[in-house]
Specification:
Oligomer: single chain
CATH superfamily of the largest domain: Glycosyl hydrolase domain, family 43
Number of helices: 3
Structural class: mainly beta
Distance between the termini: 43 Å
Number of strands: 42
Shape: globular
Radius of gyration: 26 Å
CATH class of the largest domain: Mainly Beta
CATH architecture of the largest domain: 5 Propeller
């Protein structure tokens, strides 16, 4: 059953240098403007529907002189809960933690370890020439459905990560190795000026290192730049994201407050460092997430199985030291990052205290501010990554399931605006009802920065008036737990 809500609004008055606007965005402002209500709830500065239809009205606002409308803009809460579970969308022969990089429209990449055909698939199969829309290189069929080998994909594997490319998120072309065996703990990727920055831990769970690759199709790793960030806290499993100024941000696991080996190698503390070029120097900033419990002042130790084994010169011991905290802590890790219209999101493994691992995500209005918990989804050890492709957002995991979302905006929202043209306190002219929603697109030169066009109704065709009123219908048409959460409304006027 569709759930709808009619909202009638008169907004608080603010003045800017360029135009005049009325805005409502706080708990106090919502309640101040409320005249009557039914079927809605106002909580934590957000208006949301309850199970049945409802509406509310506000007092009509009057002005001494006529004003001319420009637009109505509606913002929803950024919690982003409208995810749908789908079968894995990546190549079936991609193993280990996937790294997802959308370089632009119709140019989607996944990185992971390559799993060659086994059993019946490897026996009698004969590769044939193939053609695929959007690819101008010779391709070969494979035993795996919707998967093809390009010339680079026929190069011998090196024990590290490989690259797959897609134009539609359905068919995948294998281009071969992008990292050698010692760089098999690949964690994240970014693009800069046509080059792909591929980060890996070395040894496992330590210190992000970097390969820079200017040709992902040749079946050969790019240039190894070595150590990018000397993380003093252990943990890594980082996400890398460039801000719109081009600076690189690393979000990494900080294991200093926890026995990570007992918490899926995750931590309640997410470190944050910044670099002008993604290599060095990196400056450590305040934590992005800090969910530590009470420190006891007591220290303890545990062993990591890979450090000395993989890099004995830098790590003569595999012993890690941490401060004991009480009570038991939630832990997060294997970070992935994206920004939508300047709103930043972090996705991660989530291992709650005394429970099983799943996915969680956080959000912040700035990469430099602490992130707030948004929600959780799924089960199993995810090692997620996030990207924008084919007009949707894909949350890719190493489990059998991935997740797809149209974006943080939750449908359905319809609006209309009324004008009192005669100054008698009665609306004389209403706009037509119009469905409004956010839209998203690529920002050229960025993989993880996504452009957002706000949900906006054009009101330039309405006459001038002395008073104005807004009505909004909200319909919960999703099959998931999400629902429209109206955070703010802004009615703008011409100069």
């Amino acid at each position: 059953m569709k759930l709808y809500l009619i909202i009638s609004l008169a907004l608080a008055h603010t003045v800017s240098l360029f135009s005049e606007s009325w805005e409502i965005k706080s708990q106090t402002e919502w309640k101040k403007n409320l005249q009557s209500s039914k079927g809605i709830i106002i909580k934590d500065n957000v208006v949301s529907p309850v199970e049945k239809a409802g509406h509310f009205k506000t007092k009509l606002k009057k002005f001494k002189s006529k004003k001319s409308l420009q637009s109505l803009t509606i913002h929803q809460s950024p919690v982003w809960q409208n995810w749908e579970e789908v079968p894995g969308v990546g190549p079936s022969n991609l193993k280990d933690a996937p790294v997802f990089l959308a370089k632009g429209p119709k140019d989607y990449w996944m990185f992971g370890r390559y799993s060659p055909p086994k059993g019946k698939k490897s026996g009698k199969f004969e590769a044939k020439d193939a053609k695929l829309l959007g690819f101008d290189v010779p391709l070969k069929t494979t035993p795996d459905e919707n998967q093809f080998n390009a010339p680079g994909g026929l190069e011998k594997g090196l024990g590290g990560y490989h690259a797959w490319q897609s134009k539609d998120m359905k068919n995948w072309v294998h281009h071969g190795p992008v990292t050698p065996g010692f760089a098999r703990w690949t964690t994240t990727a970014e693009q800069v000026g046509g080059k792909t920055y591929i980060y890996y831990d070395f040894p496992n769970d330590q210190d992000p290192h970097l390969f820079v690759d200017d040709d992902l199709t040749d079946g050969k790793p790019g240039k190894n730049m070595g150590l990018a960030f000397a993380d003093p806290s252990d943990g890594s499993d980082c996400a890398v994201i460039r801000d719109l100024d081009g600076k690189f941000h690393i979000i990494y696991e900080d294991w200093s407050p926890i026995h990570a080996g007992k918490h899926s190698w995750d931590s309640p503390l997410a470190g944050h460092s910044i670099s002008p070029n993604g290599m060095h120097p990196f400056k450590i900033l305040d934590p992005a997430i800090d969910h530590r419990t009470k420190p006891t002042g007591k220290m303890a130790k545990y062993n990591h199985p890979h450090w000395t084994k993989e890099d004995p010169k830098r790590f003569p011991t595999s012993v890690a030291e941490y401060e004991i905290h009480e009570p038991e802590q939630d832990a997060y890790g294997d970070w992935a990052a994206i920004s939508i219209g300047g709103q930043y999101y972090l996705f991660c493994d989530f291992h709650p205290a005394n429970d099983k691992i799943r996915i969680a995500w956080f959000t912040s209005s700035s990469i430099h501010k602490p992130f707030d918990f948004c929600g959780e989804i799924g089960r199993g050890h995810p090692d997620p990554d996030i990207g924008f492709a084919e007009g949707k957002f894909y949350l890719i995991t190493q489990t059998a399931h991935d997740y797809v979302s149209p974006g943080p905006w939750v449908e359905k929202v319809e609006s209309r605006v009324g004008v009192d043209t005669t100054n008698n306190g009665i609306i004389d002219k209403w706009s037509n009802w119009s469905e409004v929603k956010e839209s998203y697109d690529y920002i050229k030169g960025f993989s993880k920065q996504i452009k957002k066009t706000p949900a906006r109704q054009n009101l330039a065709g309405l006459p001038e008036g002395y008073a104005f009123q807004v009505e909004v219908k909200i319909s919960d048409v999703t099959s998931n737990a999400s629902k429209p959460l109206i955070k703010s409304l802004e009615l703008s006027f011409k100069d």
